Amino acid sequence: MGQRTVIITGGNRGIGLDITRTYVEAGYHVVVGARNAYDLEKEFGDQVTFVKVDVRKESDHVLLTEIALQKTGRIDCYVNNAGFSEWRPIEEIDEAFLDDILNTNLKGAFWGCKAAAKVLGPEGTIINISSIAGKRGSSNNSAYVASKFGMNGLTQSLAKELGPKQIRVLALCPVLISTDGLLDALQSPYAPANGNPEAFISNFAKGNSALLRLPTGREVGNMCVFLASNAASAMTGQCINVDCGVLPQ
Q1: How many angstroms separate the CA atoms of 184 and 188, rounded?
Q2: Residues forming beta bridges with residue 80, ordered by sequence position
Q3: Which of 78, 109, 110, 166 is the most exposed place for a label (fewest CB within 10 A)?
């Protein structure tokens, strides 16, 4: 059968780009679904297929699976990575903002899971990129936290539902990882960085991490590749922290 294939939403920047790189290095063909390609072809050539999608639309997730099957004839893993964070106190949250963050982070993952469940065979894997915010709340972050708690609940429920088909469903819960998206989000007057994201991240690592550092996007990618492999064949329904010991559980 064809080359091992993974679909990654938001696999064009930030943590998602690191996940894409890691799967390519592991020998996968990667189908990236996002709004912009950001020169993926320049870096990866024909190892990556880019598809312009809006993850808030169920039909776009179906399109990703159709293109992946046309490309290689198989889908081994579906990574729901697309999402964004923004700190806002509840009095500043309006319906448009709440719809955007829930539709992108939670509903986007839901539609990805639904599309993947239709096409994955036994030993297929769904991996949801959640957050440590899906396990504990934080001030001025209620909308994002709610979306990630929802993603963890989705993961646990679908692990039970899809387990009889031998499809495994897992979530990864990274702590703060220094990406352009996070640094931009930390510039918000409501974020905890007080206008200095780099200093905040450094101090957070020193004060909260068992390893006195924070994880990298590549380490998240390594975990994704591991979870999609037969080495993790007994693992499903878990929401695994990738946090250098910030929240030991």
Answers
A1: 8
A2: 128
A3: 166
Whose tokens are 């081994």? That residue is 76
Looking at the 3D structure of the chain, how many domains does it have?
1
**Active-site residue 78, yes or no?**
no
Inside any domain, residue 54: yes
Q: What is the DSSP letter of 165?
A: G
Q: Residue 100 domain-assigned? A: yes
Residue 67 falls inside a structural domain: yes
More confident residue, 37 or 101: 101
CATH number assigned to the domain comprising residue 47: 3.40.50.720
Distance of alpha carbon 85 from alpha carbon 97, whole angstroms: 11
Q: Are 97 and 143 in contact (CB under 8 A)?
A: yes
Out of 23, 38, 144, 190, the active site residue is 144
- Structural domain contains residue 113: yes
Mean pLDDT of the chain: 96
What average pLDDT does the segment 215-240 reach?
A: 98
In DSSP terms, 173 is beta-bridged to 241
81 pLDDT higher than 80: yes
Please tell me the distance from the alpha carbon of residue 166 to that of residue 239, in angstroms, as a whole number.
Answer: 18
Amino acid identity for residue 185 in this structure: A
- Distance between CA atoms of residues 27 and 7, nearest Å: 14
> Residue 44, SS3?
helix
Closest by Cα among 107, 109, 90 to 99: 107
β-partners of residue 78 are 7, 126
Task: Give the position of tokens 């870096």.
Answer: 43
Domain hosting residue 108, numbered range: 5-176+216-242
